[in-house]
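Hypothesis: this fold can be encoded by more than one sequence.
Test: take the structure tokens below, design a sequence, compare later.
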């Protein structure tokens, strides 16, 4: 950032004890004079590095000038018990500056409350406000504010000051003020007191005059140390400007832009810099901070809320501003995760390392290991994970990651039908760990078997979508015949978020440009909840690049198609086609887990009704309605359990919660089948044997449907409604917030259990249609190979 061309500067002497006061002074100056282009010079005798960093954040072009204390040590002084015994003289170094035509000095216990830029144009060679008491008819000045030009920034004037200081021919208890008074001997131009309204000029209990330009909090008690009784109104003005850094940036940018719009001159580089500090903040937060400040604790809470909403850039921006203000970074792992989400991997590793030193040892090391894995550094990841397990051997996530790192390839656990001489394909997908989500475990299998049903496949090269799709991975993929991405709800910003794409596939644009083989998105879904949004422009930019590169863009439901097409330009929107999830016709494939399913018989003792409730992103699913929802589920279970075997189908460990809550809150016991532990074959068989599946997860509907089992969807996410609309049976879905949910659920499930033949026939007819649409879309890609 360049310095001003007018050779003007505001100058203050700042030390660590008065630093808080100077920060408030700086903010008041810029908020009151948003058009100033003057330099800011800080004289100091050795500031704490954190304070130096803070000032560089607030104004990056601040000029630091370290004073030489030697001349002032030779001055004769008064009471050496006074804190200002030597430091009070250091402002005199302003006269040793040689780079400016005009200088205005300001004490650090001042606040600027009105325009003062005009002082630079004052015609006097030297101007100041006379001392309030005992001014000797104006001969004695108050040195809190001084205005002078080059005539006094000279070796001659400095020598005069030093001679007076060393001789002691001045009021010793007035320090620098005494030296200047003696040196000028009344040869200065008095300024109106509004430019240096000292605290004692206001009677206790009173308010400063409305036209005051600068308030000077002289005396022993300062506003930032608790203030002084009787001066609450005066000190409230100081607190008005002692706002958070976040509020300062928001307010300054607004004020500077308004000043420029009115025809005023502004420090364009400074305004652009300050605007950049708040560019990632939500507009409503900026507007709020322009009106009312938030304390640091509230800002940190806001950062957490922004992170939970998926606005990671905003969360990082808030934490950055708070870190500068506090002089330390937030060492929490949530901060590290936000940094990783915006692509700042090195910073994320550093913050996680601090967390590991600050009590979260195992969690911090695990996070570092996972981040190293995301970047493709398996060796480093293993070292971090081993460290995490050494500190906490039962750390579940670390144990899971350690097993993943031992796999020979990301897709080592995926079984698929292979035929010698067939295609060699790459498959970028979400490959779950052991005991991961059952639906996500089955999905890659279904994709591969659906391809093998149309064309023989000799080999698959697995690529985990959450790892950076870098040049090395591109080279491996380019050695195969094509790259399939999907399926699943990959258009989702908050499952392992990244800055390269804004969705689950961590692919940089440059890697897309380097692809030399056909790219196909297979049965991908737009997976956002109602009210959830993707923040920033990266997703839209990546989506356009991906669709432009792809030979096939297949989305698994028409709702997703509509959402994605609305983001794309017209020419690219036409490339998006309907391609149902292959789990929805799993039972029609000749190979794979569904092909080994034993056909359902009617000899079961009681029809099985599976219940699946999802708890991830609970605030988005249930909002504040969970107690009412749980009560409805309890009513349903009690109503049908005499005629059916109601069981929980848990796709994840978290899905077991419904059984715990039903017993804890209603005394209702319900058995749990842990699908995530059963293995793909047994779990698919269990769904095939069921009479109906009541599911909240997308795959708790699509998988049983794919093996011919009727479904009832508990709609807490629009994708469930999208699927039912595609199979032309929206009546199979019930919104979880329906007031009569229990009664309608009992009625619908009872009807399905009682009329299996009709419902299974409807499922069978829809499955055939879905497979035809899928094969048609995939066939166009395979024809290219």
């Amino acid at each position: 950032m360049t310095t001003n061309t007018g050779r003007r500067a505001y100058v203050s002497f700042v030390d660590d004890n008065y630093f808080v006061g100077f920060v408030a002074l700086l903010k008041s100056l810029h908020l009151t004079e948003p058009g100033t282009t003057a330099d800011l010079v800080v004289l100091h005798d050795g500031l704490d590095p954190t304070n130096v960093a803070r000032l560089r954040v607030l104004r990056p072009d601040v000029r630091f000038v370290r004073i030489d204390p030697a001349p002032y040590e030779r001055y004769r002084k008064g009471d050496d018990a006074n804190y200002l015994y030597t430091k009070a003289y250091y402002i005199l170094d302003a006269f040793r500056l040689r780079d400016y035509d005009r200088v205005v000095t300001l004490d650090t216990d001042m606040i600027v409350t009105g325009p003062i830029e005009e002082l630079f144009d004052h015609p006097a060679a030297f101007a100041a406000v006379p001392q309030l008491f005992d001014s000797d008819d104006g001969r004695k000045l108050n040195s809190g504010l001084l205005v002078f030009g080059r005539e006094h920034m000279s070796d001659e004037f400095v020598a005069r000051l030093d001679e007076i200081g060393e001789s002691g021919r001045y009021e010793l208890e007035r320090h620098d003020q005494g030296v200047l008074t003696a040196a000028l001997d009344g040869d200065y131009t008095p300024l109106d007191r509004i430019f240096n309204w000292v605290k004692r000029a206001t009677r206790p209990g009173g308010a400063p005059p409305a036209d005051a330009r600068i308030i000077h909090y002289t005396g022993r008690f300062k506003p930032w140390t608790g203030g002084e009784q009787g001066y609450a109104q005066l000190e409230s003005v100081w607190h008005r400007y002692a706002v958070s850094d976040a509020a300062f940036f928001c307010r300054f940018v607004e004020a500077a832009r308004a000043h420029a719009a009115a025809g005023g001159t502004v420090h364009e580089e400074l305004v652009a810099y300050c605007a950049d500090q708040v560019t990632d903040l939500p507009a409503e937060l900026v507007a709020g901070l322009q009106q009312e400040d938030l304390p640091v604790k509230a800002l940190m809470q806001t950062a957490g809320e922004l992170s939970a909403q998926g606005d990671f850039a905003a969360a990082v921006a808030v934490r950055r501003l708070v870190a500068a203000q506090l002089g330390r970074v937030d060492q929490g792992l949530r901060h590290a995760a936000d940094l990783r989400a915006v692509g700042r991997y090195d910073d994320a590793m550093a913050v996680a390392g601090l967390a590991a030193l600050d009590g979260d040892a195992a969690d911090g090391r695990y996070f570092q290991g996972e981040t190293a894995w995301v970047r493709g550094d398996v060796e480093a990841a293993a070292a971090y994970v081993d460290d995490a397990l050494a500190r906490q051997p039962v750390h579940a996530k670390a144990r899971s990651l350690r097993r993943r790192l031992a796999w020979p390839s990301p897709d080592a656990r995926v079984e698929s039908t292979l035929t010698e001489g067939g295609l060699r394909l790459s498959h970028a997908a979400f490959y779950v760990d052991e005991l991961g989500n059952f639906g996500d475990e089955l999905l890659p299998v279904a994709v591969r078997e659906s391809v093998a049903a149309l064309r023989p496949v000799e080999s698959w090269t697995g690529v985990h979508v959450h790892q950076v799709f870098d040049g090395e991975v591109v080279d491996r993929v380019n050695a195969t015949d094509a790259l399939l991405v999907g399926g699943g709800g990959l258009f989702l910003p908050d499952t392992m978020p990244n800055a390269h794409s804004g969705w689950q596939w961590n692919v940089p644009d440059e890697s897309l440009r380097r692809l030399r083989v056909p790219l196909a998105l297979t049965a991908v879904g737009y997976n956002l909840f109602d009210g959830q949004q993707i923040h920033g422009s990266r997703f839209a930019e990546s989506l356009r690049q991906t669709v432009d590169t792809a030979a096939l863009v297949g989305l698994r439901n028409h709702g997703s198609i509509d959402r994605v097409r609305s983001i794309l330009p017209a020419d690219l929107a036409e490339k998006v086609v309907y391609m149902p999830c292959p789990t929805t016709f799993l039972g029609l494939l000749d190979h794979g887990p569904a092909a080994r399913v034993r056909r359902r018989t009617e000899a079961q003792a009681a029809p099985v009704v599976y219940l699946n409730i999802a708890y991830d992103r609970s605030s988005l699913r249930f909002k504040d309605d969970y107690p009412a929802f749980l009560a409805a589920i309890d009513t349903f279970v009690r109503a049908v359990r005499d005629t059916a075997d109601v069981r929980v189908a848990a796709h994840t460990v978290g899905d077991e919660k419904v059984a715990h809550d039903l017993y804890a809150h209603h005394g209702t016991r319900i058995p749990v089948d842990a699908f995530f532990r059963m293995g793909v074959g047994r779990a698919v068989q269990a769904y095939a044997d069921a009479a109906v599946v009541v599911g909240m997860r997308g795959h708790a509907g699509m998988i049983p449907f794919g093996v011919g089992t009727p479904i009832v969807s508990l709609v807490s996410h629009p994708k469930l409604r999208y699927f039912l609309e595609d199979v032309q049976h929206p009546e199979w879905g019930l919104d979880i917030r329906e007031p009569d949910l229990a009664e309608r659920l009992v009625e619908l499930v009872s009807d399905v259990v009682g009329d299996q033949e009709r419902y299974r026939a409807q499922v069978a007819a829809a499955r055939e249609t879905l497979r035809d649409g899928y094969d048609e879309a995939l066939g166009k890609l395979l024809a290219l190979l």
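The first strand starts at residue 8 and ends at 13. The chain has 31 helices and 22 strands.
Hypothesis status: open.
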